[in-house]
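Hello, quick one for you while I still have it in my head. Could you read through the record and tell me how the tokens relate to the sequence? No rush at all, and the record is pasted right below.
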Amino acid sequence: MEILITKEKTLGQIKEEFSKKFPHLKLEFYEVTHNNGEGTPERFQMNEGLTIAHARKKHGEGELSINANQKTNTLETKFKEIYGLNVQVFRKSGKIWMQTTSTDEWTLSHQEETSAERDKKRDLTEKEFPDMG
């Protein structure tokens, strides 16, 4: 998967492209950086209407290669090093989105598969026991 990063593209467009490939994952962009294993408070989230030109700290442009075998923290680091963008990957867990702080060493495919499997189990439970959902 390639995401073309241009100064005109919005953070929301990047998030959308990423989620098309990984529907159980999402990206959030932040004004501040975070260390491995740490989350970022929601109050620092950047508006997804911002263009890359207004959000980035470095002026790199071009394609960002994202593949399913890439570790979560590698993707976050690439955004930081190439574009100066602070990004956090989230994984869907039931009906909530969790920052992947404790699973940053997992690949994106492992994150996606784990979330998809949990969704499948939850859906089966809700069909079998509708009052529990």
Remarks:
- Strands lie at 2-5, 25-30, 62-65, 86-93, 96-99.
- Residues 108-128 form the longest helix (21 residues).
